[in-house]
Design a protein that fits this description.
It contains 45 helices and 39 strands. A 7-stranded antiparallel sheet has the order 10-11-21-12-13-19-20. It has a 6-stranded mixed sheet with strand order 9-5-4-22-37-36, with helices on one face. With 1494 residues, it is an alpha+beta fold. 50% of the residues lie in helices and 14% in strands.
Amino acid sequence: WRDLKPGHQYFVEQKPYKYELFEYAEGMDLDNRKRYFKTAPQNMIVVGGGPTGLLTTLHSLENCLRSGGTMKLYEARDAFEKAGGTYERAQVVRLDSRWVRMLRYHLGTLFEDVWIPATEETDSHLGNTLPTQGFIEITIKDMEAIMHLEVSKLWSRDLLEIYARSSANFDYKKNVMTKQGNALKERDLVKRRVDPNGEPSEEFHTWEVVQLIGNKTLSPDDMTPGRSYNVFSRDQGGLLTMELVSADEGVFDFRSTDEGLTIQVTRSNFPSVYAYDPKAKGNARSSFKTIVFQSVDLNREGKLTRYEVEFASIMNESHIMDVGQTNIAFASGKPAVTKEHLTACPYEPYGVSCIQGIKISMGMHNFGETRFGKGLIADFRSQTEQNTRVVGDFTKSVITAPIVKEMLSIMSNKPRAGDWYAHFRVILDRFPEQKKLINGDIGDVVKESLVPLAKEAKTWFRNRLQTRFFETGDNYYLGMEFTREYEVWKYKIVDEIVGAAPNAGRLKGTLRAQCDRLWYEACIAVITRGDVYNPSGKFYVPRIWFISSHTDVKLGALPEGEAFRIVSDKKEKYEVLIPGRTKVVVRSIEGIVSALSGETIVHRESDLTRQPDGNTESFVSCTTFPVTHYVNYRAVNVLPSKYWCSFSIGDGQSSPHFMRYSGLTGAAINAMLINNYLGSSIRLENILSRKRVFQMSHETNWSNDEVVKRGTGYNYGVDGFLRPGAAYDNVIEYLYYKMLEMDVARYEENYEDDTLSAIFMLSWQRKFGSMFVPRGMETNDSHTRGLEAILLPKILKTVSNEMMDREELKEDENEAFMTLFQQYASDGPEAVLGEKAMFEGDGTLFSTTKDEWDHDMRRLFEKSQASAETQDIVMEYMDRAYRITELLNRCFKLARDEHIDGKRFSSEAENEPKSTDSFFSDFPVEAQSFASGLELSSIFGAISLSATQGSVTGGSVVVSVAIAITFAILNIPTSFGTMTNVSRYVNRQEEFRADFSRTKLLGMERTLFKVLSSSKRKEIDDASNPLLKQVRVAYEDFVTGATYYDTSSDEIQESYGNTNFKDLKSVEAFMEEITSNFIPKRYQKEAYLKDKLVTLFAACIELAEVLENDERTGDEETYIEDEATYKAFRRMPKFTERLENSLQTGPIVYGFIRKNKKLSQWAIFAPLRLYFFLMGNFLLKGFSLRCGGLFNPISTEIKVMRGVVTALNRSLGQTLKKEAYDLKELFHATMESSIGMSLFFVGMWVFIFSFFIIANGIASAVQNTSTTCAGALGISGRNSFQQYQCFVVEGGAIVSALAGLIALSFFVRQFRHQRKVVAAINYLPSPPPSVRKIGSLAYFQSLISIWQCIATCTSLASIVIGFVLRFDFADFENNVTFGLAIGAVGAFGISIFLQLIANLGMLYNVEPSAGIDVCSAFWGTLTKKHRLFSLGRSEKSVMSPALEDRESWEYVAREFLTETRFDTVLGADRFNAVMQAIQSGDTSSWRGTTLVMK
């Protein structure tokens, strides 16, 4: 106190943790017994001892102590009483660089011990370190244990206080810390409505808990069989009401009738047992009789008052805690049920399973060894793997249907099925009361239900599920998505099993958990068989068991690492260290190594994670749960003491998506911000101005956005992401408290720029825009009006509820206004004021709301005669409402603008221009490499065959054989490469054809229908009407989605059933209900369903446009093209059927082989199929048309339909241009697929005959005979080996000739296309330099094609002359064939040399701006095509204008490049640049003049 300076402000400690601010003046009388501070001491309470709470305690302790404060840690568990022994959460978390830096700083060498590998280890035993990615991995329990150790060190030095078994909550309405009565402990200060004299009071007074008087515990001698007692169970977390069933020879059997639990204890481990009290149960930790409170303040007699209260009367009450002037950080984890969080996304089902044991570390990690074991050749894909982890990349995808199929297999095949059957029986034995009413075997019921489920799984809504693997030391962790269909089945089958059995809640939960185990065991088995793990790693994944076996096996039969229990004494768990038949070395859970006989009878133990005792399965080792994003209403709460605050941190502030990015995403940021908050309190002005409160709020809201964004992505995800969506009441309440937070943190004072953008960054506004305005509704006035009608009353109701809690507004003089305002909020202005004020707005959401409310509030003040003071208070609340509407208006405008600009997409991939893979044409860029492979195969075949002529090698069999074998060997990888490349090419064509059938056929049918005249459309029945079909499909898709998301669709079904879809007004009424009721109100929080409703609305728009046109034109109007269009439309069903029957949609294995093909699609029939297609296209067209297309192949059907649509397009003014071009691409894809399979056929036979030639050469060398097959055509005089030689030589000649012929045809096509490029550029009057270089390159490339043709023709000549020589058709020199073959090699070499010049010289020198330059040179052509492709756009379309424009430019790019064929000249990368430049549609950068190609 002597150091105080006059004129300065200080804090004085009036009571423990109670401070008062004063300004010191000269001569002021001070109490020297009190403590004085330059700034407010920042006492700190951290509630929760999990990872977030422990990190916050460690990171904030120094600044807390610097300010003169005290750090306290409240932990609900008993970890600090048992040295961390209660930690058992085995989920593995991936922590980012923020955590790494903070843990390194606070843990020091302990961090090195845990995460840094020892010498010659590839990974540490407790945690993984991924330095290249900046992550570390560890189980939660291990991380809690090491952080607990560091906190305990600080605790031992009296630097902080720790209170175990102490849980607390926060009441966000009252802004106070609370505790349940059963959580109170001695020395707790609570506020009770009792004054210091012990008399009831309206005000709160502080009382201290001084004593908890417990009931007397009973001894084993006090037990009487048949009586009920209260028994404390640590496993169940409290007292259970149990009946003592028997007490024989010191063994006591307790049974819980309502919980279905049986406990057997002895005198040595007898639990705490109390006399039966029906009120003393639940989560109480002991049975207390009374609780003693003592007043903190003196009573009228100058003493401290004490009084006792029955513990049962207050144990379930919430008590306000008096923590003094203290900051409080709540790190109590993700809320199970919450009233203070925004549930920002709909729930999605997820689950985790945790496996533990030495079979993981011994079988999978191989610490200190290379890769997956010494001497093992690692696959090239794993060369960059930085440790021996089998999993590799931790995010995988698994197909759903095989999991259910594997579940059925497990329940059907012995011996595993026997274990599961026995396991279900053991589970049921624990519930004797319910067991009596359950008929049959549970295993049979589950197995029978899986039979239809395995078939249904193929059609489930989600056919792929994302999984997340982690492995650290002895721990293996799998987190994954679940399908809702599985969850429905699980609940349904358990309800069916249990039936009407009473008190079966616990039994049902247990059986559902066993279904989850069955799912996970099947999932792990499916994943192990799949190509999921690192190359070769799957061979190191042991078989993982999710239940303990009940089948007797000999110990000697168990593999290394297997866990087991001895049948004769099942108390202890063992693991096999060294297997053997006669003697097995095992390890107990205490780590004691011993040898057991291999004949010992044992039961396998499950591999699920254990509790801290290492023996019992953990309760959290395998579970399913719903996942969503919670965001706390407040980032910071200023407590009534004004200079101290409370915070929710970690998952309590914003809960992350545990399968996205790292775990505990925001916790490290929260801990850092609290430390900064405490540190900034050293400067008094930061406390008085609340600048630190603002900084805490601003940064926390940024962190919340980052956390949620990890799970929502771009807000419109389909797979693996959550979608923003919430009940509007919840959103409005959240926004109100954020506006209140802005006032409390004084944003206006501490932030110079836009305050709303400071707390709600642009990404937050996008999320709210996604919640309120689904894609397609951005410019829909009906939806905007409907949204306003729903949101305005909710905002006013929220404000009204908050105003009712204001003490000043509870006074009688304000009753009139409050009554009017409540009526105004619920019934609207018409009910209170008699009219609704109308103001002109811009059509956006809430554009006139502020003006309306200002007008209405003045009227309400006048009508109620409210005082000026009342008006000021009310406007304080209304200002928050104004800001809510302003924020939502911004969100709406952002959504509208991004809709117009095409920026509302589900992933960045949607925003990327399409690559060359989307280019489908005659002989596209990908197919051009096949010709070289076939050419090379033909040349190698020619050399191998010419070497069979004896005179070529001087009669030397060895030389002849060597040449033949060498080039045959070279032909093997060449032909195999051709086969794989062709297969991938064919698969791409088939994927396009399947996508066309799935996405474009119905659109083409609708377009044809719409261009018909009204009279013609009426001739088409409803079943064939594609617009009605589209509406029906969209409606059924919505109903299916509603069922999947467990949401009722009764209202929309009723509305759909009452709609006459042939009547325009009825359709418009249905559309109005969709936009004004179903989307903004009925399904307000169902993001996916709102998308489906927009799809239904879009389908109705098309129908309404046609109905409107019919009303306008009437039945009299007809078109010249009607008959042709009608015939084309009637042809569509048959065409669709033919196309779908021709598709190849089977799975692809080994990366290039497609399974489940029809017989006619097999490679062996490919040449016949191609010949049939060609004949149909060119020879049988007229005949087949006259026969009604009866004999048309699918290619001809497509060509005919294309011709009809193209003709209609020209006649109807280019309105069918997109459909005509789609059919052109479909035709090319169909033909290229057929040609590709023929190439595969040739490559396959070249590949096969290469082996035959090698075998022929080896056999000829062994017999020292010629490798050829010369002589007359007759074969009667030849032996079997000579006949084999004839087969090999002539067969090889035929396939090599086929390869050469096909290659030659490809080169001719390539030459023709290259000349197109030359011609197109030559027509330009003044092309840019880069375009001229492309023209020169095209000319040079055409010369290369000529040389390739020469090489191919030469090899063909060698093959043909060889055939002539072998059969004496003509007389040539024998070395002619070899000379021609060598000539072919020379020509091929020249072409390769020229290709190097073209690629490394000419192409390299083409400027990077070539793509834009091509657009500039052909600017007129491109813009004309774009104008034509843009015809027919609907003004009412829900699609983004930018996306529609982008789609038009994509068509322009594909058509233009098909005509000019730049792909035959430029490499894939340069061609891709040209294609993407055109697709960008950036005409302003092309700076071209209108140049139309001749």
